[in-house]
Design goal:
By secondary structure, the chain is α/β, with parallel strands linked by helices. It contains 10 helices and 17 strands. Strands 1, 4, 5, 6, 7, 8, 11, 12 and 15 form a 9-stranded mixed sheet that branches. Strands 2-3 form a two-stranded antiparallel sheet. A two-stranded antiparallel ribbon has the order 9-10.
């Protein structure tokens, strides 16, 4: 009880901290509008501030390697393609998913399952890049990841915590901040059960600040001899990092502060710890968190490996949705379950399934998404989409719609070329109907 009270007080303090900064910004912009002194840049800043006040957030549960749709959300027990995997009923009459996800079956009321996502990218790096950015990789443009876009559009620059956090190892094909710059690269945490690396001040705050002052003096000579830009960028990064490591908000990374009952509800896997951390970070004001699980690249022994992987992600996924909902956070948090592609209907000679981008699943919940429904369908064997095909660009427009982000907003590349957040596609309106 005391732990729960402590956690509640800690979260309220973090929210008050963010709210005071936003109220200050709101007062400045209101006065500027009244006086007629706002420039075009000021108006753009005002627009961004309005987005941030909506307090939207996104959690992506990344199934690295490409999960088999047949062993997760689209079982085909009556066809040879389905193999040994059976289907089970869910909390929504008429919707069945694989027997490997019993806990997830219990929260299907909050999940919108899209069974008709498709692309042309069947290699891990290219498909991963596509599913993280909405674009195929090119040599000329460094497209930003969805996490960078959400952080730039919705993040509060006054926050001490990073706007984009990735829990797990760096992804194949990951793009980071891309053309938005290093400020929007993800802050990577290898293991959610341990404190982030290099964030503990062991010398005391005063001595740490003296060392920063000494660094400024060392860099001053270089800045005065043609290196002012590099020094300014370096100092900006150091200032940002220093503000974070010295902040009381760093306690958001400590999942041990959670009551034991809450920690137990997420299970004992690393992925479960990552999901719990994602909830803590979103609750503290972070706008985008990605938690990865894998490797789902089941070319060999698909059925037993998929079963083991599902055991790692099933309880945490269900617990995350329940936890967000019980705290009133699900309405403002888009939760996306996806990988880079699906697996083949044909079972190969090694008992595995190979890469299959022509038809795979993505599950959405929260942030205006109407749960308890299935969108799209494949044929009897799962080889072809036969109902409501959804392209990756459609999917990204749907993400943006859910988060109140203008998908047609243009970022400027280093060569002066405007790049839309999403080029083409259409919002999958049924997700919200």
């Amino acid at each position: 009880m005391l732990a729960g009270l402590y956690h509640q007080t800690e979260v309220e303090m973090n929210r008050d901290h963010v709210t005071r900064r936003r109220d200050f910004l709101r007062g400045i912009t209101s006065a500027g509008v009244a006086a007629g002194t706002l420039s075009w840049a000021d108006l753009m800043s005002l627009q961004a501030a309005n987005l941030r006040r909506r307090e939207m957030a996104c959690i992506v549960l990344w199934m690295q390697g490409g999960p088999s749709q047949f062993e997760t959300f689209s079982p085909k027990p009556n066809d040879a393609a389905g193999g040994e995997t059976k289907a089970i009923p869910t909390s929504v009459p008429g919707i069945q998913i694989a027997e490997n996800l019993p806990e997830t079956a219990g929260v299907m009321d909050d999940v919108c399952l899209i069974r008709s996502v498709n692309s042309k990218e069947g290699s891990h790096p290219r498909a991963s890049f596509l599913m993280h950015t909405g674009y195929v990789p090119t040599a000329s443009v460094k497209h930003p990841e969805l996490g960078a876009v959400v952080s730039e559009r919705l993040g509060d620059s006054a926050m001490d915590l990073p706007g984009f956090v990735r829990v797990g190892n760096r992804q194949r094909g990951a793009a980071g901040g891309g053309l938005l710059g290093v400020d929007f690269d993800p802050f990577v945490i290898a293991n959610a059960t341990r404190a982030p690396e290099n964030t503990t001040v062991t010398t005391g705050e005063q001595r740490y600040r003296r060392r920063l002052q000494l660094l400024d003096k060392i860099e001053e000579h270089y800045a005065n001899h043609g290196g002012s830009r590099e020094v300014a960028e370096h100092r900006a990064q150091y200032d940002k990092a220093s503000r974070m490591v010295l902040s009381a908000q760093m306690s958001a990374f400590d999942i041990a502060r959670e009551p034991e009952q809450v920690r137990t509800s997420y299970g004992d896997s690393e992925f479960g710890a990552g999901c719990l951390l994602a909830r803590r970070l979103v609750e503290s004001g972070v706008t985008f968190v990605e938690v990865s699980a894998g490797n789902w690249d089941t070319h060999n022994d698909n059925f037993s490996r998929s079963r083991e992987l599902c055991q790692q992600v099933d309880r945490p996924y269900a617990a995350l949705l329940r936890d967000l909902k019980s705290r009133g956070l699900l309405d403002k948090t888009l939760v996306v379950w996806m990988g880079e592609f699906g697996r083949t209907p044909r079972i190969n000679a090694r008992g595995g399934r190979d890469h299959f981008p022509r038809a795979f699943d993505v599950a959405l919940a929260g942030a205006g998404v109407r749960g308890g429904q299935v969108i799209g369908a494949t044929d009897f064997s799962g080889a072809e989409v036969i109902e409501r095909p959804v392209r990756v660009t459609d999917l990204f427009r749907t993400f943006c719609h859910s988060l109140n982000i203008d998908a047609d907003h243009e970022f400027m590349s280093s060569v002066g070329r405007p790049i839309k957040i999403v080029e083409g596609g259409e919002t999958v309106g049924e997700v919200f109907a």
